[in-house]
Specification:
- With about 450 residues, the chain is α+β, with helices and mostly antiparallel strands.
- About 50% of the residues lie in helices and about 5% in strands.
- β1 and β2 form a beta hairpin.
- α6 runs antiparallel to α9.
- The radius of gyration is 22 Å and the shape is globular.
C-alpha cells in the first residue's frame, strides 16, 4: 500500500466517533465490557503489583484529576490511567479479542475513564470513546497479527497505546490535525515485550499503554506536533513493526461493524488460549467421577500457539499457573472449577496436582483453530474418554449470560466494595450510555462508606 491511507482513515473515524450514533448491540457489548473491566480492576485492589505501582504513582502524581478504581483516592489523569489499566489486567480475567490476542478494554478504558472523569464527560461520550479506541487498536491488530506478535511484541500494549490515544481524542474533542499528531505521539511511545508475560510487568505493559495514550492526546491538544502519518511514514510503525499484506479488506467496514462485539469476556482468570482446555476438562469431570490415581495418561491436543503461550508443565507461581494448560486442566478435573478462587487458593506445588500434570501430554495440531481443544483421558483399566471444544465459553459464539457476568462482577467487586455498592455499580454499568456524567459511576468507590475497607499503600 502507498500513501497515508490507513492513518487518514483512522483519523477520520476517530473524529466521527464524538457524535456517532451507536447501534444498540454495540452499546450493550461496550457496557458489558466496561463492567467486566471494572470488576477486574476492583478484584485486584490488594494485588502486590498494583500496590507497588500505586506507591510510586502517588509519590510522583500531579493534580488530583481522576480516581483510582476501588479507592477514595485521586491522581493526575496520566497516573490514574496507568494504575487502573494495570489493575484491570493483573488477574488475567479481563476480556480478549481472540483474532488479534488483544485485551480490548485494557488500555482503552484505563485512558478513557481517567479523561472522562476529569472532563466530566457524559456516559454516552465515554462509551463512544471506548468503542472508538477498541476499534482502532483491534483494526491495527488485524493488520499486523500474527507477525507482530510472533516477533515478540506484546500486542495489547503496543497497539493499546493507539487505542488509548484514540479514546482520548474523542473525549478531548480534537480535530483531524490534532488527532493525527496524537496518533504520532502514540506511535513513538508504542512498546511492550512478550518476555514480560510470565511476570507482573505484563500488566505494567498495559498500564503504560493507557498512560502513554492519555499523554499523547493531552500533548496533541496542547499543540505538540509529531509525524501525523505515523503508520506509513518512513521509519514509522509499519516500517518498524512490519507492513500488512492487505489493508483494504480490514478497513472496508470500518464504522459499520464494531469489533467490541467480537470480544470474549473470560469465565476463567487465565490465558484465553487455555479456556477450551478448561471447558473440555470440566465437561469430562461432570461426565463421571474423576480419580487422579486411576489415570494413565491425559492427552491435550491444541493449536501450536497454545503450547508456545501456555506450555509450562509445572508452573512455579500462582501467576505462571495462569499460563499453564496443564495446571488449568488439573484444576478443572480435580476441583471441578477453574474460577478465581480455584486459581487463587490452590498451591501450584500441590503434590496431587503435580503428579496429575506429570501424566499429561500436550500435542500440537495445526489443523485446530486457537479456539479449539481436544482432551482424552486414558485410564489404567484401559477405558478412554474424550471431549472436544470448538468454541470456548465466554466467546462470541458462547457468550457469558447476564447472570454469569453479574456473578463474576460480584465476586470481584466484593474484594473492594460493600455488597450494596457493588450491586449499584453493576446496574449503573449496564445503563452507562444514559448516565449524565461519570460522577454517577466513580461515586460508587469515592463516596464515604462504599469501600469494603481501607486499602493502605504502605511504604517498604
Amino acid at each position: 500500500m502507498t500513501g497515508p491511507t490507513v492513518s487518514r482513515a483512522l483519523v477520520a473515524f476517530i473524529c466521527a466517533g464524538r457524535t456517532r450514533d451507536l447501534p444498540p448491540d454495540t452499546i450493550q457489548s461496550t457496557q458489558r465490557a466496561i463492567a467486566n473491566w471494572l470488576g477486574c480492576a476492583l478484584g485486584a485492589v490488594d494485588d502486590d503489583s498494583v500496590q507497588a505501582a500505586l506507591r510510586v504513582a502517588e509519590a510522583l502524581a500531579g493534580s488530583p484529576q481522576a480516581s483510582i478504581v476501588g479507592r477514595n483516592r485521586h491522581l493526575d489523569v496520566v497516573n490514574a490511567a496507568l494504575i487502573n489499566a494495570l489493575a484491570a489486567n493483573a488477574l488475567d480475567y479481563d476480556d480478549m479479542h481472540v483474532p488479534t490476542l488483544i485485551h480490548p478494554t485494557g488500555a482503552v478504558v484505563g485512558a478513557a475513564l481517567a479523561l472522562a472523569e476529569h472532563t466530566r464527560a457524559s456516559g454516552a461520550r465515554f462509551v463512544r470513546a471506548v468503542v472508538t479506541g477498541i476499534e482502532v487498536e483491534c483494526r491495527l491488530g488485524l493488520l499486523l497479527f500474527p507477525q507482530h506478535y510472533d516477533r515478540g511484541w506484546h500486542i495489547s500494549a503496543t497497539l493499546g497505546t493507539f487505542g488509548a490515544a484514540a479514546a482520548g481524542c474523542v473525549l478531548l474533542g480534537l480535530d483531524a490535525v490534532r488527532t493525527g499528531h496524537a496518533l504520532g505521539l502514540a506511535g513513538t511511545q508504542s512498546s511492550g515485550l512478550r518476555a514480560m508475560l510470565p511476570n507482573a510487568c505484563k500488566s505494567f505493559n498495559i498500564g503504560k499503554a493507557a498512560s502513554a495514550g492519555t499523554l499523547a492526546a493531552l500533548l496533541a491538544q496542547a499543540g505538540f506536533d509529531s509525524e501525523p502519518d505515523v503508520l506509513e511514514a518512513k521509519f514509522g510503525l509499519f516500517d518498524v513493526f512490519g507492513w500488512p499484506e492487505d489493508t483494504t479488506t480490514v478497513l472496508a467496514d470500518l464504522g459499520r461493524h464494531d469489533l467490541v462485539n467480537e470480544a470474549s469476556l473470560k469465565p476463567y482468570p487465565c490465558g484465553v488460549v487455555i479456556h477450551p482446555v478448561i471447558d473440555a476438562c470440566l465437561a469430562l469431570a461432570e461426565r463421571e467421577s474423576f480419580d487422579p490415581a486411576t489415570v494413565r495418561r491425559i492427552t491435550i491436543t491444541v493449536h501450536p500457539r497454545t503450547l508456545v503461550l501456555a506450555g509450562r508443565q509445572h508452573p512455579e507461581s500462582a501467576l505462571t499457573g495462569r499460563f499453564s494448560i496443564f495446571h488449568a486442566a488439573a484444576l478443572a478435573l480435580t476441583r471441578r472449577a477453574a474460577g478465581l478462587s480455584a486459581f487463587d487458593d490452590t498451591d501450584v506445588h500441590d503434590p496431587v496436582l503435580h503428579a496429575l500434570r506429570e501424566c499429561m501430554v500436550g500435542v500440537e495440531d495445526p489443523a485446530l483453530a486457537p479456539r479449539q481443544a481436544h482432551v482424552t483421558i486414558e485410564y489404567l483399566d484401559g477405558r478412554t474418554i474424550s471431549q472436544a471444544i470448538d468454541h470456548p465459553s465466554g466467546s462470541p459464539q458462547r457468550p457469558l449470560s447476564d447472570a454469569q457476568l453479574a456473578a463474576k462482577f460480584d465476586e470481584l467487586a466484593s474484594r473492594a466494595l460493600a455488597p450494596d455498592a457493588a450491586a449499584r455499580l453493576y446496574d449503573d454499568c449496564l445503563r452507562l450510555y444514559r448516565l449524565p456524567d461519570l460522577d454517577a459511576l466513580t461515586g460508587h468507590w469515592t463516596r464515604p462508606g462504599t469501600a469494603r475497607a481501607a486499602h493502605p499503600v504502605n511504604p517498604q
